[in-house]
Amino acid sequence: MTTAEQLTFPLPHRPALGQADFLVAPPNEAAVALVDAWPDWPGPALALVGPPGSGKSHLAQVWAQRAGARTLDPLDLYVDFEFGDEPPAVLVEDADRGVDETALFHLYNVVREQRGHLMLTGREAPARWPVALPDLRSRLATVPVADMGMPDDRLLAAVLVKQFADRQLRVAPPVISYLVTHMDRSFDAARRLVAALDEASLREGRSITRPLATRILGQVRDAG
Hints:
The protein is of the alpha/beta class. 45% of the residues lie in helices and 12% in strands. GO terms for molecular function: DNA replication origin binding.
């Protein structure tokens, strides 16, 4: 089945912050199912992992909103956590990029002792993070992992269609198929490409056709 034909099959979605939607498709459905199992996670913590642009931060924010989670900066953790009487829900994003290991170890223990939940996001499984503290390393090695993977053609096409629709733009399926085949494979790339095409369409007073898509795609790539 071609990408254009697949556009006729809507993907499930759920509300996120603002008016954005998180689309569910084969590359992320296992991770979504594990996140959705909250509060019945297999342990006190869950690691949501994936490469940049895979949508992990978006899904983490969906969970944080649902759970009423408190978001903590990985570079500004502290040891004396106070969460009140209710079981805490805590989100720490990009925890693999540098964190106070002692503070994260204490945070994990406090969440577990209070029967709460901790979500950590990163580019790869916590067992592979460069952690020096032995006690924290042993904790992270047991954390279940929800792996996002990268979006496939169907998911990228659906994301493009939705982002164009959010801007009141209708783009022909062959143009969507062309973009999916030639663009960088990430949600961030889709966002930047749609914004650039919208701007060019308005500036030049023309619809979004394949020639315009080809030119703007090259410009977006050159801009990095």
